[in-house]
Known about the structure:
Strand content of chain C: under 5%
Strand content of chain B: 5-15%
Number of helices of chain C: 6
Number of strands of chain B: 4
CATH class of the largest domain in chain B: Alpha Beta
Shape of chain C: globular
Largest sheet of chain B: 4 strands, parallel
Order of helices and strands of chain C: HHHHHH
Helix content of chain C: 55-70%
Oligomer: heterotrimer
Number of domains of chain B: 2
Number of strands of chain C: 0
Structural class of chain C: mainly alpha
Distance between the termini of chain B: 31 Å
Strand order of the largest sheet of chain B: 2-1-3-4
Amino acid sequence: MTTEYATRMGDGQRIFMTREQILADLIEGMADATDLGTIPDLSEDELDKLVDIIATPARMVGVEPGKEVPVTHDIGTIRIDGDQGNSGVGIPSSRLVGVMMHERAFGADTMELGHIDYSYKPVKPVISNEQQAMEVCQQNTIIPLLYGAMPNLGLYYTPDGPFENPGDLMKAFKIDEARVSIEGAAKHATRDITWIMRKMMSSGADGVNFDTVGAAGDGDMYASLHAIEALRKEFPEIYIEAGMAGELTLGLHGDLQYDGKVLAGMWPHQQAEVVSKAGANIFGPVVNTNTSRSAAWNLGRAVTFVKAAVKASSIPCHVNMGMGVGGIPMFETPTIDAVSRASKAMVEVAGVDGI
Amino acid sequence: MSNQDYLDKLRDTIVNQNINGCVEATNEALAAGIGAVEAIENGLSVGMKIVGDKFEAAEIYLPHIMMSAKAMSAAMEILSPLLVGDENAGHGLAITYVQEGDIHDIGHRLVTTMLGANGFEIIDLGVDVPNEKVIEEVIKNKGKKMILVGSALMTTSMLGQKDTVELLKEEGLRDDIKVMFGGAPVSDAWIAEIGADATAENAADASRVALEIMK
Amino acid sequence: MGMPIAHIMTSGMSGIRAAGDLVARMEFSKSMRIGEAKEYVAKKLNVSTIDLSDEYVMREIREDLGIGVITSVAGAPKGIAAKMNIEKLLGIKINSCERFRKQIA
Lengths: 355, 215, 105
């Protein structure tokens, strides 16, 4: 009887597959990435290694000694004190406590300070509070501590912001007006992020993390790239990390460009180039998980995309590996066996510089 | 010109986002004796299928789809009056919404757009919609060929989809409507578990799946 | 919460338990890729790159250099003080240290 190995679906459910089935799904996932991104296949050796990682008869796996990479942290301390039915575990604690727990209890290599809404725009009215929190944390922290939030262009559209919602405009077939609205929102976001980070740098921040760049489409990415460019110009030493929202930059505008390149439709290896050109130090590629496919399919796809990004990038790549991305199941409490396997695969096969 | 030439012209005006050209091609097709249903199914819809495929392959983006949809819509203004009484015409009514507790609407908007562009009549209930409001809308439209298209980006809001199906059963409406759910956490296993009809991988796929289950 | 810990256990450099913060600083401050950043830090510490994730090796080095250790050691540099020693060790400027110096000038 053929041996079957316990693995996972993309929604986290346990399934059993033979080595042949695992390999077949890895190849299928890889092919999806290579077709979409027009990027190279993984080698046979790499596929074999991925099969071995998935089929390892142990709860957790680990990278070979010497191959460890820095693990950076986004979402700030929200995973400790956040209690919104998401990944936060709702432990009442200050943000200083959260940062120090990551540094001293968990062994994090870098950390981030963020506020509970986790978008840049709402930081404006509470900027002094954020500066104070950064100053106190910097006094007590040794690991690099960034300030982070989401560019979230959605907050600049009605009913939350001054620009008419491009989704509503498009529904009314007002395409040009929708594009003008996106461009206006992007300008405001760039201005706000730059202003916020000017303040945070004056309070000792090591740098900035742009989390989920492109979540509101190409306008979101356009705003972020211009903010990165402005910050690099004003603060040559600032640490800048730009993590994406998905493997594909959604073209809600369709024609926005950076450095002469159309942002819509960019895949991770193309995103890496413009993020680096804008002046970021770290690029965070993201590949979303398909819940109806196996962990093998998802990992084959994610590793293929990320490996191409690592190769194309001129700056370090810290792959985003939270719930539902990077081959990790889309589930509030991702299973440790799946997280560990995806983590090792990204380091040893995709060759990432960090997580 | 052969009938196929007229249908190809309709298809191409959709693919090329040629709004005025699509109106012109529709009038020409009708003048040549091509029926409204044939013009939609073998001309315009073929074009929208190509547009959907290009969108899925990231070759075109939302504004381009909207321009194609506008061309389709302009053609439908001419063709719709001719469809009255034709039972085979139209794919039906799609009630779209985002589950209560969830305000993520990009995917929802894309799917709504794609369904509308593919000939569904649309009632868009928006975001953060309680199940009771969904059921109310289904009751209001009872008797029509209907599909419910719900979206949830979070695992917490996704759980409400199970209640949607239960409520439809309790109200005796489940057999009157097809039910399709989407969003990042929604899997085939979840669809099977809660007794819905289908899910899809993205907006373009959603319109294909909706057309399939409404056949 | 278990997810980041699982990553740290599987792939991470353990932060100030070992030398993860130092390697991360070189990636962030100089855009060094992982190999280059490890080589740079290892050279500064006079260890091999495999030692950078080795708590046994790094504990004593960190204590001797005053660059921060994970447990409470009375009198050992912490926070800004440890970071000022990291600046000297790695030959980089750290923003919070710069701000601190300006305030006491």
